[in-house]
């Protein structure tokens, strides 16, 4: 896959714009959403508002949707478009779905020209920076307050906290469609064959690394473009251990945030694992999907940290009988301050409706259709990934063990889920990549990686040209 594919862009690698967050009961929340816009948008033709047409899409109008053509493709939106065109109360309405891998390059001129599409999937390495378009987007609260095609209030059918990912300065402008679970992935069959216990904290990893070494395997491996997957694992683990005391200083670019004792303890253990030879060397010279295949096909390592896209991404390069499953990222030890089961999980693939579009009501209606049980179930079955719509993945995960484990993790976590916004919000990933490649290569000690990551954070904080957004 190319780097502008969803496989890279959706995660905390090269995305540069997907600022996402979910709610936590221990204080991880964003500003409340603004009031609904009402009337289907501030522009465009107006139709009669009815139960079947809650946003007042005018008859015989066209809907223009531009969708990021990444790992999920665009067919899921095309299928929802066909369903929408057949809906009662939308006589003569047609939908055009256009794929794009360069959202910012192709659509920023349309924003400037006052003729943006009616619906945009603002994803990919070339996504549009949120800071530049927030004021030009519709508030999407009324989409959540509408009924879906099955007659249920949409808000009541979704996983908790879905408004927060797309809320900026109190305005809910982006509806993130795909639910992504961040975890540590493994072959359940390999663990069963060797009688290995799954780790429950960072304290367990050294013994597991030694067991892997005895079998001629490694604990972890990595590829150069995905080195910051390990930053995600370290930071998420620290938040699971210490909650907002760890998260908020990182999110708000505070001085000394990387020196938090929990982060330092985890980095120290990680450095010891690398020095002990439990991390396969040479990843900084290995393309990321090649490295992942060394794990999923050749089974050279036991564990791999990633988002839940990993199964779909590597499905053609996974050993028969691998039985991929995932666990939540690990706390430092058994004294975590967050509730048991707390994990990183976020809605991704952000959809927006520009206020100056020709038919913003049509854009919202297409979103409403995508949020139907029918559309969401079809997506999960085809893409092996859940949407933000609950109860659309059966217990057997459509035959996918990884999808089954995602459901279990989400059910266990409940509302105790979080994410980290700042790295992507401020486009820090490209500068963090070489730092993590060096650390994983064993060329950097804990003090050095701490200083270099803090220097990057300080550079962004002290740059007056960068608009800072307070994260709560």
What does this structure look like?
The chain starts with 5 loop residues before the first helix and ends in an 11-residue tail after the last helix. The protein has helices at residues 6-9, 75-85, 103-113, 130-133, 141-145, 188-194, 205-214, 229-242, 244-251, 261-275, 288-296, 310-313, 360-370, 373-383, 401-413, 422-425, 429-440, 446-461; strands at 62-68, 94-100, 119-121, 167-168, 171-172, 175-187, 303-307, 324-328, 343-352, 417-418. A hairpin with a 2-residue loop joins strand 4 (167-168) and strand 5 (171-172). The strands form two sheets. Strands 1, 2, 3, 6, 7, 8, 9 and 10 form an eight-stranded mixed β-sheet that branches. A two-stranded antiparallel sheet has the order 4-5. The longest helix is centred in the last third of the chain and has 16 residues, at 446-461. It folds into two domains: 35-180 and 348-395, D-Maltodextrin-Binding Protein, domain 2 (3-Layer(aba) Sandwich); 182-343 and 422-461, D-Maltodextrin-Binding Protein, domain 2. The chain is of the alpha/beta class. It contains 18 helices and ten strands. Mean pLDDT is 89; it is low at 1-41. Helix 8 (229-242) crosses helix 10. Helix content is 36%, strand content 12%.
């Amino acid at each position: 896959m190319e780097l502008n594919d969803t496989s890279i862009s959706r995660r905390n690698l090269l995305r540069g714009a997907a600022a996402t967050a979910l709610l936590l009961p221990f204080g991880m929340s964003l500003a409340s959403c603004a009031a609904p816009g009402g009337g289907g948008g501030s522009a465009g033709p107006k139709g009669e508002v009815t139960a079947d047409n809650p946003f007042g899409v005018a008859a015989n109008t066209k809907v223009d949707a531009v969708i990021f053509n990444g790992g999920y493709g665009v067919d899921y939106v095309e299928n929802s478009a066909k369903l929408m065109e057949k809906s009662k109360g939308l006589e003569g309405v047609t939908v055009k779905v256009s794929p794009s891998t360069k959202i910012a390059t192709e659509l920023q001129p349309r924003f400037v020209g006052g003729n943006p599409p009616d619906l945009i999937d603002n994803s990919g390495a070339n996504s549009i920076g949120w800071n530049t378009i927030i004021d030009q987007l519709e508030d999407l609260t009324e989409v959540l307050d509408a009924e879906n095609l099955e007659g249920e209030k949409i808000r009541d059918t979704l996983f908790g906290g879905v408004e927060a990912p797309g809320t900026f300065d109190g305005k809910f402008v982006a509806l993130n469609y795909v639910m992504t679970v961040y975890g540590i992935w493994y072959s359940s069959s390999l663990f069963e064959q060797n009688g290995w216990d799954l780790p429950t904290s960072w304290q367990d990893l050294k013994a597991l690394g030694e067991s892997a070494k005895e079998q001629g395997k490694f604990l972890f491996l990595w590829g150069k473009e995905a080195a910051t997957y390990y930053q995600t694992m370290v930071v998420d683990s620290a938040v699971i251990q210490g909650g907002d005391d760890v998260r908020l200083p990182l999110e708000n670019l505070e001085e000394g945030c990387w020196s938090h004792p929990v982060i330092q303890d985890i980095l120290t253990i990680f450095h010891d694992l690398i020095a002990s030879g439990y991390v396969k060397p040479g990843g900084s010279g290995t393309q990321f999907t090649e490295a992942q295949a060394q794990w999923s096909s050749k089974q050279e390592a036991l564990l791999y940290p990633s988002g839940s896209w990993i199964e779909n991404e590597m499905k053609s390069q996974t050993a028969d009988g691998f039985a991929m499953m995932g666990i939540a990222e690990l706390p430092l030890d058994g004294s975590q301050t967050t509730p048991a089961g707390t994990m990183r999980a976020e809605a991704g693939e952000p959809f927006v409706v520009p206020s100056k579009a020709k038919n913003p009501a049509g854009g919202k209606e297409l979103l409403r259709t995508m949020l139907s049980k029918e559309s969401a179930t079809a997506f999960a079955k085809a893409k092996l990934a859940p949407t933000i719509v609950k109860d659309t993945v059966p217990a057997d995960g459509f035959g996918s063990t990884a999808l089954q484990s995602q459901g279990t993790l989400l059910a266990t976590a409940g509302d105790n889920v979080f994410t980290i916004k700042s790295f992507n919000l401020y486009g820090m990933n490209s500068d963090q990549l070489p730092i993590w490649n060096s650390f994983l290569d064993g060329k950097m000690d804990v003090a050095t990686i701490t200083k270099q990551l803090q220097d990057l954070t300080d550079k962004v904080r002290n740059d007056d040209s960068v608009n800072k957004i307070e994260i709560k």
